[in-house]
């Protein structure tokens, strides 16, 4: 599960739409499991897409919404009515909405709508599942519950998914890998731990949560911060003024001064 993480305007949704085939890239190649799909039509890419605001059909029941993708497949690929019913019933049970099969979207909560949208995307057995800020329209408590559920479902079904978010906590909790983006560029790709502990740029460091900045100066192999001085355990590549960044949990209050490098 990959998270495209970044502030508004960083290009996350554009990249997601390029993967889906809804927009075309200006250069480079796009591959699914080793196959170049750069010029393949969106309908042939076997991609499931969950939109931020669900995009459920208001005039269709929950059952018919989930079945929709199967009913519009080319005739040679389309399952018969009995197979579609069996598939949709399985998906309803999987997303724990079997008791709501005959309801309409207007009769559902936000979390229930999101599960219907997810089941509809999974019905066609996509190569890749794409989610555009899937939890953005939900309240905080429902959002937490739904992302735990999605993570568990992902572990059970073992599908590849890419989701867009601007929420650092969400990306850290749900994703296996995070792609941090800024102004159309990829700043860093890595595991949640790598992104947090080994940021590749100042932007990544500051974007990934609260950080304290201190003014310092390197002279030789010594770091000076205010009236304090510490020896560096590495050979510095830079001399002079520096910024020292510390996460809150990387600091502790001490009653005595220490000679250890901060």
Automatic annotation (TrEMBL):
GO cellular component: ATP-binding cassette (ABC) transporter complex
PANTHER family the UniProt entry points to: SPERMIDINE/PUTRESCINE IMPORT ATP-BINDING PROTEIN POTA, SPERMIDINE_PUTRESCINE IMPORT ATP-BINDING PROTEIN POTA
One Pfam entry name: ABC_tran
Swiss-Prot/TrEMBL keywords: ATP-binding, Nucleotide-binding, Sulfate transport, Translocase, Transport
GO terms, molecular function: ABC-type sulfate transporter activity; ATP binding; ATP hydrolysis activity
Domain ABC transporter: 1-208
Annotated NCBIfam families: 3a0106s01, PRK10851.1
Chain's gene name: cysA
InterPro entries (UniProt xref): AAA+_ATPase, ABC_SmlMolc_Importer, ABC_transporter-like_ATP-bd, ABC_transporter-like_CS, P-loop_NTPase, Sulph_transpt1
Name used for this protein in its record: Sulfate/thiosulfate ABC transporter ATP-binding protein CysA
């Amino acid at each position: 599960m990959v998270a495209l993480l970044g502030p508004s305007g960083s290009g996350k949704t554009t990249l997601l739409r390029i993967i889906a085939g809804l927009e075309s890239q200006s250069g480079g190649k796009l591959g699914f499991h080793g196959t170049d799909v750069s010029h393949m039509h969106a309908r042939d890419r076997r991609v499931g897409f969950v939109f931020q605001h669900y995009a459920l059909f208001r005039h269709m029941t929950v059952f018919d919404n989930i079945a929709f993708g199967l009913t519009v497949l080319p005739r040679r690929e389309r399952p018969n009515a009995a197979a579609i019913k069996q598939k949709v019933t399985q998906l309803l049970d999987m997303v724990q909405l079997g008791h709501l099969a005959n309801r309409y979207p207007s009769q559902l909560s936000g979390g229930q709508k999101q599960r219907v949208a997810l089941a509809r995307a999974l019905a066609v057995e996509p190569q890749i599942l794409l989610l555009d800020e899937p939890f953005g329209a939900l309240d905080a408590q429902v959002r937490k519950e739904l992302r735990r559920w999605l993570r568990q479902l992902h572990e059970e079904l073992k599908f590849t998914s890419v989701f867009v978010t601007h929420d650092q906590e969400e990306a850290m909790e749900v994703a296996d890998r995070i792609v941090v983006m800024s102004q159309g560029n990829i700043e860093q790709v890595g595991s949640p731990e790598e992104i947090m502990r080994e940021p590749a740029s100042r932007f990544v460091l500051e974007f990934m949560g609260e950080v304290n900045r201190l003014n310092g100066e390197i002279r030789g192999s010594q770091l000076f911060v205010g009236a304090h001085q510490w020896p560096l355990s590495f050979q510095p590549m830079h001399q002079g003024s520096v910024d020292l960044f510390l996460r809150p949990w990387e600091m502790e209050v001490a009653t005595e001064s220490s000679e250890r490098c901060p």
